[in-house]
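Hello,

Our lab assistant flagged a job as stuck in the queue for most of the afternoon. It eventually completed. Since we weren't sure the result was trustworthy after the delay, we are filing this so someone can double-check. Below is the sequence as submitted and the structure that was eventually returned. Let us know if re-running is recommended.
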Amino acid sequence: MDTHAEPIPAHAPISPPPPPGPEALRPVAPSERLNALDAVRGFALLGIFLVNIQGFKAPFGKMMGALPASTDTTLDQVAHYATRLLAEGKFYPLFSMLFGMGMAIQVARVARAMKSFPGFYWKRLFVLLLIGLPHAVLLWYGDILIIYSVVGFVFMWFVRARAETLAIVGGLMLLISVLIALAFGTIGFVFTPSPADAALAAPDVSPVMTAGEAPPTGGPFERWIDMFQQSGSERLQPNDPRWMAIETDAYRNGPFFDSTLLRASSYLMMVGFWVVASGGFFHILAMFCFGAALYKAGVFTPERRSWWMVFLAIGAAVGLPLSALYAFGGAWFGDTSFFYMIIAFPCNLIGGPLLSLAYLGGICTLVQSGASGVVTRLFAPVGRMALTSYLLQSLVASFVMLHWGLARFGEYSRGDGALFVIVVYAGQIVFAAAWLSVFRMGPMEWVWRSLTYLKPQKL
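-- returned structure --
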């Protein structure tokens, strides 16, 4: 998300920072921009929004099914499989690699300024944590900023290593994440009651009462707690119809306090599952290492552009088949907990990053060749103000879906969600281009940098 400054031509060389030399520590100057990486970052934000919108518009349990619902339209089914094949588990690794690259660039700049890198980046990551906390509690329980800040504190101990060392550490972290996912997947499958297999394809739910049904007592959060207390030894999952009905009621109807408590609780559960049970902490650390390694190896210099075609080849030959197994395996082998926990998810932990590299290589090739200036014009401005763009997506989606806005939660299908993302992102392209024609950086980038440098930055 380390983006701000004036654009450079789409055909400008992609090169590392100039040789070391004392300089004042300041935001990145226009001549230091890596324009292709801004375009990749902007493209990644589109993919991230395509995945995140599923949680913004409907209960989380609806995302758990490997198969589309029986009532889905053709558009819904296309959106379901396309998102699983091309987006889920592909764009957060890409964005994480870019974050690792940005951190490596910052290391070089801080070293040239003769400053203490740990002290500078501690402040930078701490401010990111402060931004992420209200985002997770008030807008989006899938927030990534808090996790980035925590993983970033660990990554500081590796970021100054050589490219070869970073690649080895990244490989080990990726292996650990896959082994953790396999271990917890096996445990989860063994202890999951057999009816849960069929429940993976989440049913439709509605908070509307049926005829003769007594109205629920207490607020949504109170009913959610009661559900757990009454379940006893029963293992509840987010795709439980009771859970999804309470979630829909809270986010569509409020009140604010209940929906906030439920979102905060969902965030803690999400982090607990994703970071601990699925190895997410190690997976993101691996992506940070890979991104920094690619930058330090000079992969983004014109002399090594042949690597970009290698990324495309690996993504097509290995990443795409593994992603296809994740996307279509439920239809091929049956929508079972065994398939999802032990086969599909671990495959996506490997296939996703490989497909991310293909995206990276493809966009870098287009931008560097100068043959597709439209790529830069569309994606780079959004990528240059990535933090603002990411938070703005959450704000717009929350306003449309939640009770304090238009209260459309639970009403959009998967196809509707994809169309919503395209419309909102098109607006972001216009907004980012207009903003950056006047200002040097996005508004949230200005806040982040001003608090990091402990003085207002030039806007």
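-- support follow-up --
The delay was a queue issue, not a problem with the job. The result is valid. DSSP finds 17 helices and no strands in the chain. Residues 45 and 390 are 7 Å apart (CA to CA).
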